[in-house]
Design brief:
single chain, about 260 residues, Alpha/beta knot, Trp Operon Repressor, Chain A, five-stranded parallel β-sheet, two-stranded antiparallel ribbon, about 30% helix, about 15% strand, binds ligand JDK
Length: about 260
């Protein structure tokens, strides 16, 4: 997969050199190109912002440098000779559609992505109307720009690319693939600070382990994220487990949080 990122702070994307994403790049699975938007600013001061029409605080990113950057990088509208087609152009914004695991999976199927990282109060909306395929929010809080949102999305997408995560099962089996939060995980020692690893996980009975994980995932989801349960088809067994622990299948604060504390 090819990825272009346009930003006034290319250094902000330096975590892409590290860890899982860095390794995917070193192995040629991911081909990242960072671009400094100011290289497409035409005046001597390399200005990319201006005051907002209608007044108000802060500055807005001017359309012309974005236009020049996108035209040169490959969003030219028509088919690009090198890639055979135009990239999917993504603009992180606090007013976008929510980023989800399902959307990450769709992006992982694309051959070519372009991320446009705004700063200040954002990019002149005419650029977005003309070029953007998707305006995406990574959550309901306001960042200072699109760079960190781009890092978040690229990390989620990269681990879905074939060959990046060694054990393909660990990607398919993720939280959100099942629609449930995952059960907790443990490693040695068997007792630590007085906390014991559940006996079933040390039993070697893989049927029982599978059921324990499913039940714990279900109860955890009912307690912490009842909203997620709306989209899950619960079996009779699932409903019985919920009832047994004093929760309806839409969750309730009644039951104890299974194997985990609620953040204080
Ligand atoms: C891209 C600039 C910062 C944007 C105006 C006024 C109250 C703020 C600052 N999920 C998510 N969160 N934040 C982003 C994101 C922020 C960005 C940019 C993405 C580019 N900023 C910014 C808008 C405002 N707005 C009313 C809320 C202020 C993505």
């Amino acid at each position: 997969m090819r990825v272009d990122v346009i930003t006034i702070f290319p250094e902000y994307l330096s975590p892409l050199d590290l860890s899982l994403v860095g390794r995917a790049r070193a192995r040629g699975i991911l081909d990242v190109h960072l671009h400094d938007l100011r290289q497409w600013a035409s005046d001597v001061h390399r200005t990319v912002d201006d005051a907002p029409y209608g007044g108000g605080p802060g500055m807005v990113m001017r359309p012309e440098p974005w236009w020049a950057a996108l035209t040169e990088i490959g969003g030219a509208g028509g088919p690009d000779p090198a890639m055979g087609r135009r990239p999917r152009i993504i603009v992180p914004t606090p007013v976008g559609r929510p980023f989800t695991q399902a959307y990450a999976a769709r992006l992982a199927d694309e051959p070519w992505l372009v991320f446009c990282c705004g700063r200040y109060e954002g990019i002149d909306t005419r650029v977005i109307e003309e070029w953007a395929d998707d305006e995406i929010s990574i959550g309901d809080y306001v960042l200072a720009g699109g760079e960190v949102a781009t890092l978040v999305m690229l990390e989620a997408v990269t681990r879905l690319l074939p060959g990046v995560v060694g054990n393909a099962e660990s990607v398919v089996d993720d939280s959100f693939a099942s629609g449930l939060l995952e059960a907790p995980v443990y490693t040695r020692p068997p007792v630590w600070q007085g906390h014991e690893v559940p006996a079933v996980l040390r039993s070697g009975d893989h049927g029982a382990i599978g059921r324990w994980r499913r039940d714990t995932a279900l109860l955890r989801t009912a307690h912490r994220r009842p909203d997620l349960l709306e989209a899950v088809d619960l079996t009779e067994h699932d409903r019985a487990i919920c009832a047994e622990h004093g929760m309806g299948d839409h969750g309730t604060a009644g039951g104890a949080d299974p194997n985990g504390r609620v953040a204080q």
